[in-house]
Design a protein that fits this description.
Layout lengths: L3 H15 L4 E6 L5 E3 L12 E5 L2 E5 L4 E5 L4 E6 L9 E7 L4 E6 L5 E5 L3 H4 L4 E2 L7 H10 L4 H6 L4 E2 L3 H11 L12 H20 L40 E3 L3 E3 L4
Parallel strand pairs: 2-9, 10-11
Antiparallel strand pairs: 1-7, 3-4, 4-5, 5-9, 6-8, 7-8, 12-13
Helix pairs in contact: 1-6, 3-6, 5-6
The structure holds a DNA duplex.
DNA sequence: CTAATCACCTGAAGGC
DNA sequence: TGCCTTCAGGTGATTA
């Protein structure tokens, strides 16, 4: 499912395609997908810039923003003409260039918000995991103030934004930390290791164009390749690469792995 | 405060 | 073939 790396690949690809393009029309085919907090649709607005916080993609318009969350199955597909599939098409942004940015979403969980202020949507979203302001010190401050399972903490977007099941499992595995380990009991050295692995694994996944397990696609409809390098996610009942024991799943929530 | 559960939705996969 | 159940899991709301 799309997490920070997938969303960042999509944002980067779109950046070169839609900046300085003018919106001609927006068509919506599922009543909940497009959430308009403004008076009108942003027709005739220029797309000035793109940004990303956690799993949210942000299009800065002239006076307001489009904020997109793909949730589980959302896809943003860019096409240069009107010859495209309408299966699972929930929203379509037509540009004056004749191109379309189409939002496909089989499960209908994804959203496009049209807002005049970002805080109306992003007020509960914490610091982006790849932000330069997200430092090791900042991480440890948040970590040691909590007393909860480390995976649950990392999943909570109000502290660190962008991590989901795939990359949390990979980061914890690489750091040798059990997903249910309590945050306040994690050793200083392990916390630092985890911090560095978060940055490392996210950046590697971006280089690999994201992880395609089922629905994630790049804006041209292509697959990522990072699924070929996963060490623990999606490997239930397979042998651990480190100790050869069998990887087990707990509560649909996390993976357990046994160390030598 | 945290944890657990449900709701939102659909399609794929597996059992019978 | 077909019906039924389970599972995938991001987020927000609700309950304990």
């Amino acid at each position: 499912m799309p997490e920070l790396p997938e969303v960042e690949v999509i944002r980067t690809e779109l950046n070169s395609k839609i900046i300085n393009q003018k919106i001609k029309n927006i068509s919506n085919f599922w009543h909940k997908t497009f959430v308009n907090y403004c008076q009108e649709l942003p027709i005739n607005d220029n797309i000035i810039n793109t940004d990303r916080i956690g799993k949210y993609i942000i299009f800065q318009l002239e006076n307001n923003y489009l904020v997109i969350h793909l949730r589980m199955t959302g896809q943003l597909i860019f096409t240069e003409n009107s010859n495209f599939s309408t299966k699972h098409l929930r929203s379509s942004i037509e540009l004056f260039s004749g191109s379309y940015l189409n939002f496909y979403d089989s499960r209908k969980f994804g959203r496009i918000y049209h807002v005049s202020e970002l805080k109306s949507i992003l007020s509960n979203v914490g610091i982006d995991a790849l932000s330069e302001d997200f430092t090791n010190k900042h991480f440890k401050n948040m970590l040691f103030k909590q007393k909860r399972g480390i995976k649950s903490f990392l999943l909570d977007q109000k502290y660190i934004a962008g991590l989901g099941n795939i990359y949390i499992d990979e980061c914890l595995f690489l750091s040798g930390i059990h997903p249910k380990k309590l945050t306040n009991e994690i050793k200083n050295k392990d916390a630092e290791k985890l911090y560095l692995n978060i940055k490392k694994i996210l950046n590697l996944a971006i280089e690999n164009m994201g992880t395609t397990i089922s629905d994630y696609r790049t804006t041209g409809g292509g697959f990522g390749t990072n699924q070929n390098f996963l060490k623990v996610y999606n490997r239930e009942n397979e042998e651990c690469f480190r100790c050869n024991s069998i990887i087990q799943k707990i509560n649909n929530e996390a993976f357990v792995y046994i160390f030598i």
